[in-house]
Design a protein that fits this description.
- By secondary structure, this protein is of the alpha+beta class.
- It has 4 helices and 7 strands; from the N terminus they run βααβββαβαββ.
- It has a 7-stranded mixed sheet.
- InterPro entries: Acyl_CoA_acyltransferase, GNAT_dom, NAT_camello-type.
- This is Acetyltransferase.
- Keywords: Transferase.
């Protein structure tokens, strides 16, 4: 089995030049899992093609994963819109198949949570869907707890799994 250490991987902040590549990663992964725009998933987000601009806002960050110089994944954190100011949201964690299972999602989530703590957030929210069982298991291992209703105004109406973590 290949490990992350054996691959030419790089984790770095998003740049404007990454917008098309990370949008394509998100669209590819979403299609693979049946997370289509008509169901209100991330691919319907009008900001998908401008993630650099979105995550350049205050208290927001997004990191890109490169394999041999090619964008293969990413994830970020930002204030949860329409909510209390101490709540951030873990967002847009997507990875192409060749880099899944290498611990990159855990690494990126921990980086995002550290970033959030440094910015004064005391809670982190996320939304996902039940079909992403590996992601849910990771979030549970990281201390996220299932909650019953949605928080904020994410616009992801079909993300039926909602979780919250105290930072």
């Amino acid at each position: 089995m290949t490990t992350a250490a054996q691959l030419n991987l790089r984790v770095r902040p998003i740049t404007g030049e990454d917008n098309p590549a990370i949008a394509q990663v998100i669209r590819t992964v979403s299609a693979e899992f049946g997370l289509t725009a008509d169901k209100g998933y991330t691919v319907s987000d009008p900001q998908l093609d401008r993630l650099f601009e979105l995550y350049s806002a205050a208290n927001s960050a997004y990191w890109i994963i490169e394999l041999d110089g090619v964008v293969v994944g990413g994830g970020g954190v930002a204030p949860l819109q329409c909510s209390e100011p101490d709540i951030c949201e873990l967002q847009k964690m997507y990875f192409l198949a060749p880099v899944r299972g290498l611990g990159l999602a855990r690494q990126l989530a921990l980086r995002a949570l550290d970033f959030a703590r440094e910015r004064g957030f005391t809670r982190c929210y996320l939304e996902t869907t039940g079909s992403l069982t590996r992601a849910i298991k990771l979030y549970e291992q990281l201390g996220f707890e299932h909650i019953s209703g949605p928080m904020g105004c994410t616009g992801h109406v079909d993300c039926e799994v909602r979780m919250l973590k105290r930072l």
